[in-house]
Amino acid sequence: MLEILKHRTYRHLFLAQVVALLGTGLATVALSLLAFDLTGSDAGQVVGTAMAIKMVAYVVIAPLASALAESVSRRVMLVSLDLVRAATALALPFVNEVWEVYVLIALLQSASAAFTPTFQSTIPDTLSDEEEYTRALSLSRLAYDLENLVSPALAAVLLLVTSWHGLFSGTVIGFIASALLVVSVALPSSTASGKRRGVYERARRGFTIFRATPRLRGLMALNLVVSLAGAMVIVNTVVLVQGQFGLTDQHTAMAFAAFGGGSMLAALALPALLKRWQDRGVMLTGAGVLISGLVLALPASNLAWLLPVWAWLGVGFSTVQTPIGRLLTRSSHAEDRPALFAAQFSLSHAGWLVAYPLAGWLGSVAGIQITLIVLAVLALASLIPAVRMWPADDPIEILHHHDDLPADHPHTATSGSRHSHHYIIDELHPRWPG
User: Fold this and answer.
1) Using CA atoms, how far apart are residues 415 and 417, in angstroms rounded to an integer?
2) Of 304, 312, 303, 313, which Cα lies nearest the Cα of 359?
3) Which of 55, 79, 167, 292 is most buried when burial is the number of CB atoms within 10 A of its CB?
4) Does position 385 have pLDDT exceeding 50, yes or no?
């Protein structure tokens, strides 16, 4: 898998992703400590509100930013957004009011909402070979998992020699390093569409492709499965480990590490697996693993049971998430790729916006057992339409109807009084080179 790092442009982009993720992880820890300094025991409310702001920014900003940036150089956009994030992180240690935290978090996360899908859509244009791109997706998944494991440990080490203010300095360094790595390479330009489209049309372009493409309609349902299971882990791990089992912070960290470890193992195995299995089978299996993991967690009464279940959930999480870039790339031309990645970014985080408060509210009001049952049932209810909407016979190009062609169009056939045509949606489903 590491052979892909011989590709200079991709290597710099991957390293930019890693250092930016480490910086983001440090900021997450620092934000919690900042909130405690400002509000004491109400810190959880501040952090929860900040997370809600993050999700709203991701849902709303990503497609708009993609539309507005269609004619902007990718390198200029990515570097500018990194600098905005660095400047925002630099300002956070100097706030004195909670509302100031919310404003800066909104700015920081809006920049991230514009940065991430643009970055993701650049990779398939950098690596035109599907096998190389699959390896890149697995490495990307590993980077996210390592961030979850390494950032808290790095924060703990830094806090031995500095205050939480110093963690924000690490965040600034991460974003600046990311900008320098991006500017050090020439990035492929997004292909301009022959048709000039307005901002609104460009913003909804990705959602239009999602609605028109069966495999992507299935992906929308799978996004919800991922968010329901993932929210259970992220929100309620500490409740289980320290609230029900009566253990310590270190044991909570072990549970998160088990989830991240399972995800990393799956990411390492997926390049070889995706050579033998189609994406549909792999991703639907991963969704089944997530649902079964929620069910297996029901009898958990100690850490010895929870750790392998959380690792199993990590396997399912990565198995669904890793191949998504392949689906998006296969379902778009280069000029539509940023819009499609932005739409996926927005739609997937809409699921998290629902799942986070649901998992937290149910856990506190109804208890963990009821929460697991409800989340498992909802996840199963999402998997069923995913199976139905994503056809087992999933060709790269599919037939569809248009009613907007003139009657004399060469692809139009007359059937009674209704004109329709059947043609290959090559506009939406290009083949990989070779």
Assistant:
1) 6
2) 313
3) 167
4) yes
